[in-house]
Design goal:
Distance between the termini: 50 Å
Number of helices: 12
CATH superfamily of the largest domain: Dihydropteroate synthase-like
CATH architecture of the largest domain: Alpha-Beta Barrel
Oligomer: single chain
Number of strands: 15
Shape: elongated
Length: 369
């Protein structure tokens, strides 16, 4: 018997609209891709270089750690020279938050549980309101308030939600509503459940992520499952991959997740076959050459790189441009049509050039709009 399958769709839940600089978050805006620098904030040159690399990869908002008052002056210079909005990441010292706001931060991220005293928190909220910037309430499983952790025994999804609701009420009591929320755990299942629960109780925009997800392979898998499931349920307004890797890789993984769930298209999509005994060309080397050659392309071009005659020609025909190879040669396809035969040694060069030409056409079309 063939059973009916419930298909999840990327229908978005409506949340409140806020702005980080000129970037809209929530309220039906496209899901925003974020990352965080890992350079010392006091090293302005390196931090700005990393922000530019993140911007070129498609990052739309960047978070910068402000660990002490000695970071305020360089942070101010970073904010003034950054091409994308900069969020200050603050912990423990409320004075740092106040100075970061005055230094031009377009938003701040705090864990209210490690900001001592209600009066200190009130000062931060008042200053953020004066400068018209939002605050992300960041709830992490590793830093829950002691009383909540004692109540639940462990950082359960219910504990994360309880902490979030607790701080939302404090913020609202202080007449502050420019809020963004995150409820992160290193557990994929706990994270999913926490976001499901909080999305039923508030309409504030949600920042998604699996905290401390791990190295690039493990972290990509965990983030893709956790963030992908939530996005398919319509939950989430902005995302960050927490990978132990170059933050540029976080941005690339984020866009692949958004592409996979049908929410955003950014940069080339590579369709390539796994290596098997039928493969008669160096498919792995070919894929690596093409990926390196088209790095930085922003157009959403579907590129097929196929290594045998079983599925290769069919898959390549469905792509915008692609090659299918075998026995030292290959065929170039473009928009479903066979263009010409190519020696194996020229496949990478020809395909890269075709993608670059498509990028030029795409950019011309964007400019005409």
């Amino acid at each position: 018997m063939i059973k009916e399958i419930m298909v999840l769709t990327a229908h978005r839940m409506k949340t409140k609209r806020i702005y980080v600089g000129d970037v809209p978050i929530g309220g039906g805006a496209p899901v925003v891709v974020q990352s965080m620098t890992n350079t010392p904030t006091t090293d302005v040159k390196r931090t700005l270089e990393q922000i530019r690399a993140l911007r070129d990869a498609g990052c739309e908002i960047v978070r910068v750690a402000v660990p002490g008052l000695d970071s305020i002056e360089p942070f101010s210079e970073i904010v003034s020279k950054s091409d994308i909005p900069v969020i200050a990441d603050i912990h423990f010292d409320p004075q740092i938050a106040l100075h970061a706001i005055r230094a031009g931060a377009k938003g701040i991220r705090i864990n209210p549980g490690n900001i001592s005293g209600r009066s200190s928190l009130k000062k931060i909220l008042r200053e953020a309101k004066n400068f018209s910037i939002p605050i992300r309430i960041g709830i992490n499983s590793g830093s829950l308030p002691k009383e909540i952790l004692k109540r639940y025994g462990h950082p359960t999804p219910e504990a994360l939600v309880d902490a979030a609701i607790h701080y939302i009420r404090i913020f609202e009591d202080m007449d502050f509503s420019e809020i963004k929320l995150s409820l992160k755990s290193s557990s994929v299942l706990d994270t999913i459940k926490a976001y499901e629960m909080i999305s039923e109780r508030t309409d504030y925009p949600l920042h998604l992520g699996i905290t401390e997800a791990g190295p690039i392979v493990q972290g990509t898998v965990k983030s893709s499952i956790g963030i992908g499931i939530l996005l398919l349920k319509g939950i989430g307004d902005t995302i960050r991959e927490s990978l132990t890797a170059d933050p540029v890789q976080e941005v690339k993984v984020a866009y692949e997740i958004l592409r996979a769930v049908g929410l955003r298209q950014y940069g080339p999509e590579i369709i390539s076959c796994p290596v098997c005994g039928r493969c008669e060309i160096d498919i792995m080397g070919l894929v690596n050459q093409v990926c390196e050659g088209i790095n930085g392309i922003k157009a959403p071009i579907k590129v097929a790189i196929m290594g045998c005659v079983v599925n290769g020609p069919g898959e390549a025909r469905e792509a915008d441009v692609g090659v299918a190879g075998g026995r030292g040669k290959g065929i170039l396809f473009k928009k479903g049509e066979v263009i010409r035969k190519i020696p194996e040694g020229d496949l990478a060069r020809v395909l890269i050039n075709e993608v670059k030409e498509m990028e030029k056409s795409y950019q011309r079309e964007v400019q005409r709009r």
